[in-house]
Write a structure and sequence with these properties.
This is Bacterial Ig-like domain-containing protein. By secondary structure, the chain is of the alpha+beta class. It is built from eight helices and 14 strands. Strands 2, 3, 5, 6, 8, 9 and 10 form a seven-stranded mixed sheet that branches. Strands 1-4-7 form a three-stranded antiparallel sheet, with no helix packed on it. The termini are far apart.
Length: about 300
């Protein structure tokens, strides 16, 4: 049984091949110098990272055949379509991937690429992009250019099936990689100076604006928001070492709140949200529950500053 199949990967895997019809020698040659998952390629998170991956596409495709001709106009169309998908896709459902793999398996066993095979490949490719949330315009742009690459360039080569199936697999993989939103941050923890961490997802504070910390991609914009209202109650940016400390910018009254944290990319696309975490604002010692929470002031070189009610 032929078990070859396309499996989306998240970390730098657009450079792997289906190895569909190549001989063992040509497959090994094409793989020379390619990075494998074990070497730990970096997941492209920022838009700059993703655009760099798209710019590298011609070089990626040439790993299949180093001296192959790649029409500049065709590649530009593919790259433009992929750029319009950046951070806007979601993982394709298994049903779409299964249909794509069935089409691929039928074609890889053929000695040559027939016109109907090219159509089947292109339609299966379109189905996965559509199922991943790509717009009709972006899907049409990439699919039209891919069909041109396969029918006008790959079919003129000595290994048309190998190139065609792998071209589609690589571009589809790249679309899945650059199309994913920024990953969800881990649940942050409250800083000891502003509250107590009861457990991994519940904290307590006498302050109306406590501070939460954690780690994430350096320089990313992070938002802490109220799950129930959608209101953003705090923003911050991790340092170069990835660590961040975000003090809530919106004072919270005594009560319990369900919060989440997410990243926002340079274009304003919202990333995936963390699991919710709860924050309980409690009255400071010496104050009745009827009184609002207070912001405890920090000491200064001139001495302590009197705390003010929020």
């Amino acid at each position: 049984m032929d078990r070859r199949r396309f499996i989306p990967r998240s970390e730098g895997m657009e450079t792997r091949m289906m190895l569909s019809t190549a001989s063992a020698a040509s497959a090994a040659s094409a793989l020379t110098g390619m990075t494998t998952p074990a070497t730990g390629q970096i997941l492209p998170i920022t838009i700059q990272d993703k655009l760099h991956r798209i710019e590298r596409l011609p070089g990626t495709l040439r790993t299949l055949s180093p001296n192959r001709f790649l029409p500049k106009d065709t590649m530009s169309e593919i790259q433009a379509g992929l750029t319009s998908m950046v951070s806007l896709l979601h993982p394709a459902p298994s049903s779409a991937l299964q249909a794509y793999n069935f089409a691929m398996r039928d074609i890889v066993s053929r000695p040559s690429l027939r016109p109907q095979d090219a159509r089947v490949l292109n339609n299966a490719f379109i189905s996965v992009l559509q199922a991943s949330g790509a717009t009709p315009e972006a899907t049409s742009q990439v699919a039209t250019a891919m069909n041109s690459l396969v029918t006008k360039v790959d079919t003129a080569s000595i290994q048309p099936v190998f190139l065609a199936t792998n071209d589609y697999a690589m571009v589809l993989q790249l679309a899945q990689v650059v199309g994913q939103p920024m990953p969800a941050p881990g649940v942050p923890t409250i800083t000891k100076a502003t509250g107590a961490q009861v457990d991994s997802r519940h904290s307590v504070s006498p302050l109306s604006q406590p501070t939460f910390g954690g780690t994430y991609q350096a320089n990313a914009l992070l938002q802490i928001y109220n799950q129930d209202t959608g209101e953003v109650v705090g923003t911050g940016t991790p340092e170069k070492n990835g660590r961040y400390a975000i003090q809530l910018s919106t004072p919270l009254a005594v009560g319990s709140y369900k919060l989440r944290i997410r990243a926002v990319d340079e274009a304003g696309h919202l990333g995936n949200s963390s699991q919710y975490f709860t924050l309980s604002i409690v009255p400071p010692k010496g104050h009745s529950k009827a009184e609002p929470a207070v912001q405890i002031a920090q000491a200064t070189p001139q001495g302590p500053v009197k705390a003010l009610k929020s």
